Amino acid sequence: xxxxxxxxxxxxxxxxxxxxxxxxxxxxxxxxxxxxxxxxxxxxxxxxxxxxxxxxxxxxxxxxxxxxxxxxxxxxxxxxxxxxxxxxxxxxxxxxxxxxxxxxxxxxxxxxxxxxxxxxxxxxxxxxxxxxxxxxxxxxxxxxxxxxxxxxxxxxxxxxxxxxxxxxxxxxxxxxxxxxxxxxxxxxxxxxxxxxxxxxxxxxxxxxxxxxxxxxxxxxxxxxxxxxxxxxxxxxxxxxxxxxxxxxxxxxxxxxxxxxxxxxxxxxxxxx
Length: 272
Fold this sequence. Notes:
- By secondary structure, the protein is an all-alpha fold.
- It has helices at residues 3-34, 51-57, 60-92, 100-112, 115-128, 135-160, 163-171, 176-205, 208-213, 221-229, 235-269.
- Helix 3 packs antiparallel against helix 8 (176-205) and helix 4 (100-112) crosses helix 6.
- The protein starts with a helix and ends with a helix.
């Protein structure tokens, strides 16, 4: 009597999962397949070909935009990770200081503030400072956007961390800075790495804020793709999106292997 409802529920869950995965990943699969399409029309299949990858590597503007995006994402993620980690330490380990509520509110504001408002406010700031818009203005804008995400990730790890470990190190003669570097930093390093990857991804994906703060000759890849898609999808866009997906897949696999090796080393080093 109870077996049939369980079977029906399991089929329902499997069907729901399959539909959900198809909704998320089927467009990506179609994009990858059509990046090898020989036809110039992206909706008409003309056979398998690497033609558009060759065209992509001859498209200097698209490659420059991709290189610009990678540079901005790497620099802004590094700055956001540094500043976000320091902010998380100030909120988690610092004593109650005057203006703490205002500091935390301003820090977390980009989480809930529309990107249009953030981009427009940064544009007005750069215009008031008479700053030339380009690589550094986009980098500063992305650092402002992503720093709060790093703070949330690192602060959540610090909140669960046992402070007695750091206190024991200081009782044994370590200075506070050395105790942090030797004890606390290795324990929160995975959250710092996760915050960096999150900041890198958000910067690489941003269109709205970058469109406000970029200048001539410093368009990022999302802006370049968006500007070309408005005139029609080109096969080169499918090709570069496939390359970005391949790069992300390689990074995910490498991170999984590193995590697996670190767990294996930790288990082998255990006394049991």
